[in-house]
Amino acid sequence: MKQGDIIIYACVIIGAGIGLMLDQAFPGVLVGLGLGYLIKVGIYKDKDK
Prior knowledge:
Elements: H1 3-21, H2 25-44
Keywords: Membrane, Transmembrane, Transmembrane helix
């Protein structure tokens, strides 16, 4: 498993936890997925070049 994937999974789990506290788990998962992807791209964009 790549380190970038771990970042996305962690953000999804955190988003789901926050969503469960607000009684909206699925939107929390989607927000976590989006933020995880943006964080991954931000961290690894310089390493692709």
